[in-house]
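Example record for the data management plan.
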Amino acid sequence: MEISKLGYFSLAGWQEKKKQEQKSKNKVFYLNSLVTDIYQHNLFTVPGQGVLNYLQKKRQLDRLMITRFSLGCTISGKQLTNLLFQQKNDNFSSTDLLATNLVWITSDNRTSDFFLENQLIVPLANEEGKVVAFASRKIEESEVNEGKYKYLPSHHHYHKSSLLYNYSAAKKSREEEIYLVEGFFDVISLTELGIENCAAILGTSLSEDQIKLLANLQKKIILFLDGDKAGKEAAISALIKLLLQEIDCEAIKGNYEEDPDEICRQHNKEYIQNFLKKRENPYLFILDYYFSKWEVAENPQRVSHFVREVAKIFQNFRVNIRDFLIEKISLLVKWNKEEIESYFIKRHFPLPNFRYLQIAYCQEIIQQKEIIIIRLCIQSRAHWVITAKKNYFFFHKSNRRDYRSIYNYYSLDACSNFFPNQLDNYNISLEKDQKILETSETIEKIFQEIDHVKKFLLIYEQKYYSRT
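Corresponding structural encoding:
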């Protein structure tokens, strides 16, 4: 039976695809490195003087910091088009340049750069420190209601929500914690003061991919977002997301209104170091925020609303966290813990969903039966032949993955009578089960048992929906 009929891939084809993907990625890295040099060179030319003055005078950055973060600027809306797109290059093609979105072809077939002239340019690097995209910032105020920042549109090797600015530097830091801020200049200003263990969200919303990056650091995350209303709400949202993933985190106390960049430029290194020591437990930070936002102290009638909403926020947290919160809320609103607990009990102990439990139980049975089938296929090629003929689709993802490995091995090596390696999930001695696993009838019986469970589930679901 051909592998392709069951949807399994050709190893040679897969390797060739990966090779082409890596080749494409290397071209993107090369292109972006070249463009970074072009933009940085622009900054120290006469046309780039306006952006340089903005960095040195308004942002108070010296040349060392400008160079460290590879800051640059645009001096024309067609510079990259003229330099890279319209001239032949052995290292990349015009198609490669278009794929990065640095150069665009308009509807009337004109070519131009994505970024306009006289813009500050900030390179964006991935977790390995390779530049994958760019962002721009206006240096002049505009009457048109447009944002100050502009990011390259996503492409195959870049999604803004999948990276953190300065992540690779923070990852290399020996510090056991990392400061999480909103923007580029927050990171640059902290770094200028010697605080290099920092990274930026590039916005106010923390994405799932960014949370994974932070989890991989295995460091404490210290939130230091802007002090305005949007920044505080963003801090609350980020803390909840981090706590749900059980990532160790704290927040800088929220008695400031500026953004980190402004605070750093207004004070010296010693002041900032002391400022950053003023932190708060994330749960207490959240409680204090909502207690203040809803003005509970001035309006005792809002206590019930406060407790109810907090219970909603923490409804998916562990019971020990619930007990901690009940105690803290009790001290905050001066209610008995028993009164507060009733709000949480409603959230944490709903009526059992018997249909869900029945389905989960049947799925667990099927999972265990499939594990036995995988064990049999590992033990003997004969068992695999029976399984292959049935075209059985494994219910559980990890079982599908492991069966694919077994299938590919036996298909490519017709002389092997057993699978040479014990897979991680099945590295269990088969000797004690030898009597059960000796005959080919055993595997047929297991498939019959799986069919019985599936038929039961089908009938159960039909009866359930006929009642509803």
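Summary line stored alongside the record: Residues 354-422+430-467 form one domain.
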